[in-house]
């Protein structure tokens, strides 16, 4: 991979993870892993300034404003991010550079709370608006009603300046976070990964009663804009906010040298394990407000502040057992269960060991003392084994040769480190297998949720996916037991099941859950086979010749159809009337959009996004989720958001639904 390709790949990765973190409140990687991606990209861009950086995430604030979360409000003052640093040398360099220009500069060092930034606007002392950061530059989301439920926020100030905008961080105390997760767990719902995710998801709730019940907290940390009142320093503004009854960042410290700044950072770092809330660093700011104005900001960060990020917290504990779980594809995952420890504000007692290779690399054994870290306060991981504390008599751990769920033989995949169960209808995989089968990208059986799947499996109505199409034979029984609800709800689901029989074969192929065969590969297979039966009879050589089907995928398809149980399921699906023949006449479909990449945004007049996506792909186009230099066209409907804005900024042509239909003819 050349440098330009690596830079583009890093930019795409960071854009994706920005969306997961800022907009979906559901990050997939830790802060530490994200920081490593960002550092690598910044390094490469610095070394290769000739490569265009105008569209790089290093030049922009990470989030976007989501219209569905509330009314969009224009920012009066940008709510910028901070430049992250990770080494003492970087902190010293920042401080000394400023001191070299102005020797009497004072720095304020304060905790960096791990939460969600908001701006509070007061007119004549009354709270009028609460806004999220959104895209940080143009718009944020109006969350005023939810902000009013936070006890740390005052709706009426003691003093009444004509206007003041205060920036704060909404967060969740550890005990309140654990109470929310306990309640979700009792209700059988998905838990939040950490307090930051919980706070962000809660603040965007449409029901303010839920927000009040979850007990969010807030620290104010900056004055953004004022009318009728002036401050000369940051510390002065914090003291004024405190007098109004609003909580400000605790224990901030004023420093006059790089050494004092570093001491303050270390002091905060030493205290973080005992705090009742999560922090993810320390912030170093210039205290003098007029000097801040002189220093200014880049498009993304102020020049008068940085954020020091602490290394991942690490603690020792003992392994009690290694527990195995079987996933939807049969992959067997070992998990270390250890004596509970507290990391970054939450209790931790398990961490994945991934596979046999990772176990061998660590040489982790039951009874071992291990070092665990929780990088970015998200995903616990076993860092190492303290060999000198190993008790006598321990033995190396090996994954079993049989599945812990069904007893079928296990096999290690070629070219991967995964061990999996060879029984494709293993009971441990059944719930996830059916969830995949009825999901939106597969058979799209609306209303067939996980709760129904679980109860139907438990009551022995579902033993494989074919059983779904025989549920109608038990209609009266299902209504009498109330497993899917009363008559109306049961009939509604049975009709959705019946309607799904007419789906095209790419949906059925996706629903089979064959390893490495997702929606895109299934669409490609549909172009080459007139029926599922033709696909069943295809050889390995036939399959590897197809675009999007490599060696592993081809072997998985052959293996799937050679399995006797799967053959029986296929026959039962056919007997139930499920369509096994392609609905497309491939001879008549043209590929006039081949080589073009489209992005769909907004609400289209007559088509859903998935329908438009299928139509474009049918004519050879690729469909992407984000706008980039590779985008050929953006298809926009009503309420198109940041993707449309970005397309206009980059000069990418924008089409309406009708214009797309006209082009396709």
Strand elements, count: 22
If you compute it from the alpha carbons, what radius of gyration comes out, rounded to the nearest whole angstrom? Answer: 28 Å
**Numbering strands along the chain, what is their spatial order in the largest sheet?**
2-11-10-3-9
Query: How much of the sequence is in beta strands?
Result: 15-25%
Kindly report the oligomeric state of this protein: single chain
Q: Specify the overall morphology.
A: globular
Category from helices, strands and their pairing: alpha+beta
Biggest β-sheet, characterized?
A: 5 strands, mixed
Residue-averaged pLDDT, rounded? 87
Can you give a write-up of this model?
- It is built from 24 helices and 22 strands.
- A 5-stranded mixed sheet has the order 2-11-10-3-9.
- It starts with a helix and ends with a helix.
- Mean pLDDT is 87; it is low at 63-69.
């Amino acid at each position: 991979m050349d440098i330009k390709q690596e830079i583009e790949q890093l930019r795409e990765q960071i854009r994706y993870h920005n969306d997961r973190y800022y907009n979906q409140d559901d990050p997939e990687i830790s802060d530490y892993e994200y920081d490593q991606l960002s550092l690598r990209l910044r390094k490469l861009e610095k070394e290769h300034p000739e490569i265009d950086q105008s569209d790089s995430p290093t030049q922009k604030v990470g989030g976007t404003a989501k219209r569905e979360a509330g009314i969009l409000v224009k920012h009066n003052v940008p709510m910028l991010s901070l430049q992250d640093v990770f080494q003492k040398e970087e902190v010293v360099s920042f401080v000394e550079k400023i001191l070299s220009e102005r020797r009497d500069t004072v720095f304020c060092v304060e905790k960096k709370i791990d939460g969600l930034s908001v701006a509070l606007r007061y007119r004549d002392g009354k709270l009028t608006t609460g806004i999220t950061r959104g895209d940080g530059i143009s718009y944020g989301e109006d969350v005023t009603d939810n902000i009013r439920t936070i006890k740390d926020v005052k709706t009426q100030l003691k003093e009444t300046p004509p206007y003041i905008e205060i920036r704060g961080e909404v967060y969740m105390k550890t005990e309140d976070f654990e109470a929310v997760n306990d309640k979700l767990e009792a209700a059988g719902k998905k838990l939040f990964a950490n307090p930051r995710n919980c706070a962000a998801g809660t603040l965007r709730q449409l029901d303010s009663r839920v927000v009040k019940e979850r007990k969010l907290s807030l620290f104010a940390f900056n004055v953004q804009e004022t009318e009728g009142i002036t401050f000369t320093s940051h510390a002065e503004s914090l003291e004024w906010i405190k007098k109004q009854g609003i909580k400000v960042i605790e224990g901030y410290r004023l420093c006059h040298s790089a050494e004092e700044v570093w001491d303050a950072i270390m002091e905060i770092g030493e205290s973080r394990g005992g705090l009742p809330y999560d922090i993810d660093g320390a912030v170093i700011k210039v205290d003098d407000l007029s000097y801040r104005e002189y220093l200014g900001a880049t498009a993304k960060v102020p020049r008068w502040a940085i954020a020091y990020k602490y290394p991942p917290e690490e603690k020792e504990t003992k392994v009690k057992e290694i527990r195995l779980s079987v996933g939807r594809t049969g992959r067997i995952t070992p998990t270390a269960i250890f004596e509970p420890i507290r990391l970054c504000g939450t209790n931790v007692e398990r961490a994945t060991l991934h596979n046999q290779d990772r176990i061998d690399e660590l040489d982790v054994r039951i009874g071992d003392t291990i070092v665990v870290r929780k990088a970015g306060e998200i995903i616990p991981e076993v860092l190492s084994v303290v060999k000198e504390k190993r008790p006598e008599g321990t033995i190396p751990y090996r994954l079993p040769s049989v599945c812990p769920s069904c007893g079928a033989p296990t096999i290690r995949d070629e070219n991967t480190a995964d061990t999996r169960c060879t029984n494709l209808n293993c009971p441990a995989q059944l719930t996830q297998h059916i969830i995949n089968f009825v999901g939106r990208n597969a058979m799209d059986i609306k209303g067939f949720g996980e709760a129904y799947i679980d109860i139907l499996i438990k009551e022995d109505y579902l033993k494989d996916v074919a059983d779904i199409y025989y549920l109608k034979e038990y209609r009266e029984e299902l209504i009498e037991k109330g497993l899917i609800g009363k008559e109306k709800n049961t009939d509604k689901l049975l009709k959705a099941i019946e309607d799904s029989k007419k789906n095209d074969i790419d949906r059925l192929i996706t629903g089979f859950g064959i390893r490495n065969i997702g929606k895109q590969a299934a669409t490609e297979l549909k172009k080459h086979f007139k029926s599922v039966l033709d696909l069943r009879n295809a050889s390995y050589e036939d399959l590897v010749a197809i675009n999007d089907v490599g060696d592993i995928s081809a072997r998985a398809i052959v293996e799937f159809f050679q399995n006797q149980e799967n053959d029986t399921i296929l026959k039962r699906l056919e007997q139930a009337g499920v369509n096994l023949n392609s609905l497309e006449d491939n001879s008549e479909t043209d590929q006039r959009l081949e080589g073009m990449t489209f992005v769909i945004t907004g609400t289209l007049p007559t088509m859903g996004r998935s329908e438009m996506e299928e139509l474009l792909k049918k004519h050879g186009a690729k469909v992407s989720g984000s706008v980039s230099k590779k985008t050929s066209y953006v298809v926009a409907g009503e309420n198109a958001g940041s993707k449309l804005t970005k397309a206009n900024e980059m000069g990418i042509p924008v089409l309406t639904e009708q214009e797309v239909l006209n082009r396709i003819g």
